[in-house]
From TrEMBL:
It comes from Octactis speculum. Signal peptide: none annotated. GO terms for molecular function: lipid kinase activity. This is DAGKc domain-containing protein. GO terms for cellular component: membrane. Transmembrane segments: none annotated. Residues 55-109 form the DAGKc domain. One of its GO terms (biological process) is sphingolipid metabolic process. It holds the Pfam family DAGK_cat.
C-alpha cells in the first residue's frame, strides 16, 4: 500500500498467486492488481481492504522502499498503513528493501 501524494488516499497493491493446476507446467506467475481507497478512518479503510481482498488474508508481506515517498516511505507505512492493517486484524511481515530490484526478487521467490 502507498499513500497518494496530496491526498488522504492509499493504493493497495495485491500480488495474487494464480491458481495451480495439477500436472501443469511450472507455477503460473503471480498477478498484480491495485485498488485506490479513500482514507476517512482506519476502521473504514480496513473494512474496504477486507472487501477488496475477500477472502481477507490473515497475514501480508509489506515491502517498503526506504527512498520511496521522498524518503518518507517508512514513516508513511508506520502512520498511515500499519494502523489500517492492524484495524483489519491482518498480521504483517515488514521488509525494508536495501537494493534496487530486491522487492521483485522477493515476490518471485
Amino acid at each position: 500500500a502507498k499513500a497518494v501524494p496530496g491526498g488522504k488516499d492509499i493504493i493497495v497493491w495485491v500480488c495474487e498467486a494464480a491458481p495451480s493446476v495439477c500436472c501443469s507446467a511450472p507455477p503460473y506467475p503471480r498477478r498484480l492488481r491495485s485498488q485506490k481507497i479513500a482514507v476517512s478512518s482506519p476502521e473504514k479503510c480496513a473494512s474496504t481492504i477486507q472487501n477488496v481482498l475477500a477472502p481477507a488474508p490473515t497475514s501480508v508481506l509489506v515491502l517498503i522502499n526506504p527512498v520511496g515517498g521522498s524518503g518518507t516511505a517508512q514513516s508513511i507505512y508506520r502512520t498511515e498503513v500499519a494502523p489500517v492493517l492492524e484495524a483489519a486484524q491482518i498480521q504483517t511481515s515488514v521488509t525494508v528493501t536495501s537494493r534496487r530490484g530486491e522487492a521483485t526478487d522477493i515476490i518471485r521467490d
